[in-house]
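Help!! Second protein's tokens look totally different from the first
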Amino acid sequence: MALQGSLDPGLTFVLPRASADSKGFAKGIGLWFLLAIPSTYTNSMIKHLQAKLSLRMRSRLTRYTDDIYLSSAPHLRYYRVALEGGLDDVDQYITSDIGAFCDALSGI
């Protein structure tokens, strides 16, 4: 990435002189494409691995919270909140918060 960033200013410097120095321009474009292909693959793989990590964390955390949500212990039952008139759709809030948390955590 650092080399690609250092090539971009050189490329913009060569563009106005493209007619005079076509070999230098072609070399700059070639170097830029040579570097762009591996960096595109790397960025795609990073995003894929982040999504995979987020999905695994989300499934495990959702399974854990569902076990607590449906627990036989009366002090752990979240659905009591909805029955007592506190919040509506508590399970939906928990699920959406878990998804947002896992997406943010996998991005770190």
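Here's the second one for comparison:
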Amino acid sequence: MSAFTINFLLYIMPGAAYFVMNTLIGLNSELAELSVLPLRIYSIVCLCIGPRAYFTGILIMKKKTMYLTPSALFRFLGLILFLSTLSNTRLSGANLGITSLLLGFVLEAIFVVAAVTFLRYKPKLCSRTKHSVEDDSTGTEAMPLSNTKSQP
């Protein structure tokens, strides 16, 4: 959360990014003006990188790294898709690149969260399937517990 606070203070507050670019770094005013919007977009990246890193750590701790393999592929395909789609909009240059990068990170974070969610509910899904197979293998149908009448 501290990374977001620093990014917010430097890039989203009016005039702060321009001051840093122009005065501290020494860029000319035209280049500093062009750099402000990509930096504002980039300041949001930490909001999706943090949860992605947390859930990636959970998968690594559980030694389920095979579920992380497709996430990089999803990010790469997302980048290509977003670049081709967003190029038809008014975005160009650094704005287009950083927006596509942000959307690729968001897509990868969604995939990692979905993998953790799948692993959490996988035992419950497998146990339901196992019980239904066992009931079917005995050849008897499961009888309801309520509204049962005893036969003479």
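Reply: Different proteins will give different token patterns, so don't panic. The chain has two domains: 1-43, 46-121.
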